Amino acid sequence: MRKIVLSVMVVAFSLALASTSFAKKKGYVEGTAGKGSIAGTVSLKGDAPAPIMEDLNKGKNVEFCTTHPDTKDGGIRPRVKVSAAGGKLKDAVVFIEKIDTGKPWGDAGKANFDFKICDIEQKMLAVRKPTKAEKKSGGVLTVKNHDANILHNPHGYSVVGASRKTLFNKPLPNQGDVAEVTKNIGRLKAKKDKHFFLQCDQHNFMEADARIVWNPYFSITGADGAFKIDGIPAGKYKVTAWQPYVGESTQEVTVGDGEAKADFTLAVK
Q1: Which residues make Cβ contacts (< 8 Å) with residue 44, sequence separation at least 6?
Q2: Which of 254, 249, 266, 246 is nearest to 95 (CA)?
Q3: Which of 214, 227, 242 minimizes the C-alpha distance to 93?
């Protein structure tokens, strides 16, 4: 009898552990969109850092890369890390930290980067971890080379503090080549991976960033610093505004069936 009781206890304990493990692994579940939204602006306190002035004459493919419309006299091109006008911050990502269920993902969190005229067209996007099916089908993260006779080498990283972890490193030697790297971001982890950084190993002044998101409730600010997140179920949420070279700010926002307001201010480091 004692052995039977002990066996039952062991089985029950094992099931409890399995249940806990499953609960920890469970992420966002697609459901029904809510009727609420959050809208506001992200402001920058202080002056934006001056652009980094890149001398393209010191790099590769000088004759072609200097045809970029932003190139100044002498082959100098500004590399802007923080963009703000009138105190409003562009390319800040505003997102709900944790939400169990809500609107379907749709195309949210799919990132497609275009390499054109020795530049990355998209400077800030959001990207998510692919599902098992998407790891096979692709389409969540791609990089395309639009430049004829120019070798680009997109190198994607997960950035944590001062350290970088390589996610992919794919040469694109020909115009029209596409790096389908959805599978490479399949090992992202919610507790650790937040900042995705993309750079061309052939032209290191080519850079872009993305926030790694874990639900479809996010928005990227435009030049006016404005954002709006819709389809939110009623509730109380922690909402964060983030820009990789300025920092982040979090506040609690209560959402009903209408529009809730939330404004953020990030200070220059």
Answers
A1: 82, 84, 87, 88, 89, 225, 246, 265, 266, 267, 268
A2: 249
A3: 242
Q: Let me know if domain 105-215 sits in CATH 2.60.40.420.
A: yes
* pLDDT in the model for residue 269: 78
Say if residue 1's pLDDT is above 60.
Answer: no
Phi, psi (deg, nearest 5) at residue 21: -60, -40
Give the CATH H-level superfamily of domain 29-48+87-99+222-269: Carboxypeptidase-like, regulatory domain (2.60.40.1120)
- Residue spans of the domains in the chain: they are 29-48+87-99+222-269, 105-215
Q: Which two tokens stand for residue 63?
A: 């004759």
Answer whether 214's CB lies under 8 Å from 230's CB.
no
In whole angstroms, give the CA distance from residue 236 to residue 252.
7
- The two three-digit tokens of residue 93, written as one number: 């990502």
67-93 residue pLDDT tens: 999 999 999 999 999 999 999 999 999
Between CA 182 and CA 94 the distance in angstroms is 23
